[in-house]
What does this fold into?
Amino acid sequence: LIRRLLTALLVLLAAEMSASELQEKINSLATPLIDDGVVVGMVVGVVRGDDVEFFAYGETKKGSKVSPDKDSVYEIGSVTKVFTGVLLADAVREGKVAVDDALQEHLPDKVNAPIVDEDAITLQHLATHTSGLPRMPGNFAPKDPTRPYADYDRKKLFSFLADVDLSRGPGKYEYSNYATGLLGEVLADQWKSSYEQAIADRILEPLNLKDTGITLNDSMQERFVPGYNAVLKEEPAWEFQAFAGAGAIRSTAADMVKFIQANLRDDDAGITLALRDAQKKQPFPKTGQSMALGWHIAGDGMTRWHNGMTGGYHSWLAVVPKHDLGVVVLSNTATMKVTQFGEQVTRLAFGGEVTPPARRKEVEVEAATLKKYVGTYQLTPQFALTVRLDDNKLMVQATGQPELQVFADSPTKFFYKVVDAQITFVPGDDGKVDKLILHQFGRNMEAKRK
It folds into this structure.
């Protein structure tokens, strides 16, 4: 009874919140991201029943003063995995595959899937990240790190599958780009086409998504906004071969709203049935994580969601079919702050309340003090933070990650703007700084200076 009352209250609140009230609340969340230089630009689309609102923030290109709009084109990254899940549901409805088919049944000749303890990997395992396959294949070695998937082809994809030695069988959740890329290729083979053509024929055309796809037509190219990494440096667009099913799609907020509306429909069209089948909760290990085909399922059991990030873009997509709600956020900045923002906008669409991010006030610290912090701080044998001074800006680079600027709360305490993390420099008895403390994920992690 309490749960039913809570659900009714959320629906009532959502119905009563006007578009102007919703915009005001979303503005309070978005403005700090733009003003603090965390995000270059982004577009939000919100569906509440028959009502659709779009809100745009920032710029299409840094310094251009040109605002994005619902027709600006972005990379959606791993939100592509939702389309791959729908393609699987569609293939099941067409009788081409069954969701519990063994992967081996649909591989090219002379390609063998690994088996551990006689447990075969199924297509459902691939779609729910429970295959036991790693996040990335061991033979992934891009020639150009800024375009990491451009040269990974089918030969490499199947070669790795034949050689991989799994440490465990399927059943445990472990997010895998490789598994979803593999699923995309297997499904494309069922239609005797490329992944790009398969989603165009089976999903995009039936839904009239003319501004969604992998290869940009002339019109989309004109509206394709440049992407930026977490330090707002422009990054090249990503290209895909065999990993297309894991992250290759580009789209607009307008088209993604159409996709949301299609996921909320209740008719008997073939594509609608496939969309609904893809939303169904799959049998899953009891780990607190729930999955549909390609969709993650939130803790409320109702919300289907996915996010995505490429070198210069970040996206968020959520649908709540039970309450006729959906949210999309497309940004041309690769920062997890966009996912946090998307989660908050989704709660607002529900009629819930959110707290705008606290605005930290930066203080000035003398260059002589900053210089004392320069050095390398070892967190683990494999992970260190390297601190340097660049034109009186304190820059920190974690192992394998981009260099980011930190800003002073006080002479010894600093904060990141693009991630939820802080650093405290700790002087020893002699006044020299011999360690720092990284505050992140609710933990305080000590790193000693080398």
